[in-house]
Amino acid sequence: RRQATEYSTSSSDGEFESKHFLTPKARRAIRKRRKLEKETKQLIKQEELKRLHKAQAVQRQLEELEERQRALEKFGVELERELRGEADSGTKDENQMLHEWFELVMEKNKLMRYESELLIIAQELELEDHQSRLEQKLREKMAIDDSLKDEMDLNEEDEI
């Protein structure tokens, strides 16, 4: 029983470690590596959360943008009817209605450009997320000793 407690296995590498055989320097190196792995995992998680928050903000902005575009479209339809004389324009003259129509078109174009920018940001976030997943997968593959890998594992690692 005493002998069994003297030996412990590392949870991260599965190596057989003995407290009697490891030098203090080796123990420090193992602790340092584990601490570094833990910090790396925390950083990855923080980056994922940042991307998630940014993606949520982009989605919210796209929804607001769509709502504004619908309102502009509705106003534009009414304005076009007035310009054609199909609806009662009230006290507005034709010059004023044309001015409003051109401003409406400019606003709509501005919103379309903004929507394009938001879609590019969303695509960028997707690519960053994909890259992060690939990096994590590669780290996992590279953590395995090369002598334990078969040809398929090596090819998959190269492909990543």
TrEMBL record:
Coiled-coil stretches noted in the UniProt entry, renumbered to this chain: 26-82
Compositionally biased residues, Polar residues: 1-13
Pfam assignment, any one: bMERB_dom
InterPro entries: bMERB_dom (IPR022735), F-actin_Monoox_Mical (IPR050540)
Keyword Coiled coil: yes
Residue ranges constituting the BMERB domain according to the UniProt record: 45-160
Record's keyword terms, sorted: Coiled coil
Annotated region described as Disordered, given as residue ranges: 1-20
Name used for this protein in its record: MICLK protein
Native organism: Leiothrix lutea (Red-billed leiothrix)
